[in-house]
């Protein structure tokens, strides 16, 4: 996947007026007419490619959005992936669906690939690309391309959603608008600016010599420094770091995102944005939450979910009809991404993670 496109996706996080251009690129990547981004928490915020903007102005203004079964289907999926119409409906069902019959098809559309993102902060986000009806359904090859980009889209949209898809004027305004503990740092880990919520975490976040961020959890601190070192790499991606308490339980998750391109106009010479999501331990995490927190692929989330519910690797392999070597490889990636060294540690960590107040 082009590093330049990934950088532009992260640029959109705090420069949301650039999303239509990125959505255009997603549409080109999938031979579609245009792309969409919807974000909802207490209110609906959305943006779209210019080629489909007028169509979706009607879609929202005339109440089609609230009646659309596609959105409900996407948000109801536990697997973190893009889906197409054939994943939900037969041809006859599509022909009879008022949304497709009376809205999309009369406007030349009717095929899409979309995904629902349940962000740990409580924001619900939908991405989709919309294709001309005459072109036919979106092929699996194109869905796979979108899935490669999905973790990047998820991270960037999480920030955009907190900012209500509005551009901010500077670092202080951006960090305050996130309404979560957050800071920006340079490549050496020196904190350039932080919001007031960081000050509520004195036992978890400390500042050392030269105002460098220091995490008392050594493993998390090592991951933080490694993430900073990777920021300079073209196409570097976000990562998530579980921060454990004295008992080894995950108490919060640190989301590290590169600051790219024109985002420097807002954050100056900062290299990374760190945003912190609190977690609680009253229920096991769902697959999509694990994927969102720890950047797991759909396959890795399936393995992690199986472990969290007590399945053995053999049972996970049999349930997914995949080879044990594949499952072991996916487990190694889960260990890397969650900062764990042993399988039992993954189980303990994931069993302690759930969504807390955002």
In brief:
The chain is α+β, with helices and mostly antiparallel strands and 358 residues long. It is built from 16 helices and 13 strands. The radius of gyration is 21 Å and the shape is globular.
Explain this structure.
With 358 residues, the chain is an alpha+beta fold. Helix content is 43%, strand content 20%. The chain has 16 helices and 13 strands. The chain has helices at residues 3-11, 19-29, 50-61, 64-67, 69-75, 91-96, 98-104, 140-162, 171-177, 218-230, 264-267, 287-294, 298-308, 313-320, 324-338, 343-351, and strands spanning 34-40, 44-48, 83-84, 109-118, 124-132, 182-185, 191-194, 206-207, 213-214, 239-244, 250-258, 272-280, 354-355. Helix 14 (313-320) crosses helix 15. It is globular. The model is unreliable at 281-285 and 354-358 (pLDDT under 50).
């Amino acid at each position: 996947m082009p590093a330049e496109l990934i950088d532009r996706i992260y640029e959109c996080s705090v420069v949301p007026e650039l999303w239509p251009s990125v959505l255009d690129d997603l549409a080109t990547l999938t031979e579609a007419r245009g792309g969409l981004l919807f974000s909802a928490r207490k209110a609906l915020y959305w943006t779209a490619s210019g080629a489909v903007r007028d169509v979706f102005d009607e879609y929202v203004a005339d109440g089609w959005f609230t009646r659309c079964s596609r959105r409900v289907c996407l948000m109801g999926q536990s697997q973190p992936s893009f889906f197409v119409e054939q994943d939900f409906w037969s041809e006859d069902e599509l022909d009879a669906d008022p949304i497709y019959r009376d809205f999309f098809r009369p406007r030349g559309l009717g095929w899409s690939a979309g995904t629902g993102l349940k962000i740990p902060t409580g924001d619900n986000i939908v991405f989709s690309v919309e294709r001309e009806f005459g072109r036919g359904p979106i092929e699996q090859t194109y869905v796979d391309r979108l899935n490669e980009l999905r973790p990047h889209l998820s991270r960037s949209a999480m920030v955009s959603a907190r900012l209500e898809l509005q551009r901010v004027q500077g670092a202080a305004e951006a960090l305050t608008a996130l309404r979560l503990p957050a800071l920006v740092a340079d490549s050496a880990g020196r904190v350039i600016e932080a919001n007031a919520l960081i000050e509520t975490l004195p036992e978890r976040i400390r500042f050392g010599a030269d105002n460098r961020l220091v995490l008392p959890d050594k493993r998390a601190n090592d991951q933080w420094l490694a993430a900073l070192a990777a920021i300079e790499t073209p196409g570097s991606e976000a990562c998530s770091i579980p921060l454990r308490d004295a008992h080894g339980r995950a108490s919060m998750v640190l989301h590290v995102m590169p600051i790219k391109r024109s985002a420097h106009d807002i954050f100056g010479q900062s290299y990374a944005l760190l945003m912190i999501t609190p977690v609680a331990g009253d229920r096991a995490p769902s697959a999509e939450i694990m994927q969102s927190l720890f950047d797991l692929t759909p396959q890795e989330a399936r393995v992690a979910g199986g472990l969290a519910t007590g399945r053995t690797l053999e049972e996970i392999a049999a349930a997914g009809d995949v080879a044990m070597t594949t499952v072991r490889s996916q487990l190694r990636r889960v260990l890397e991404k969650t900062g764990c060294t042993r399988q039992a540690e993954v189980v303990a960590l994931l069993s302690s993670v759930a969504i807390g107040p955002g």
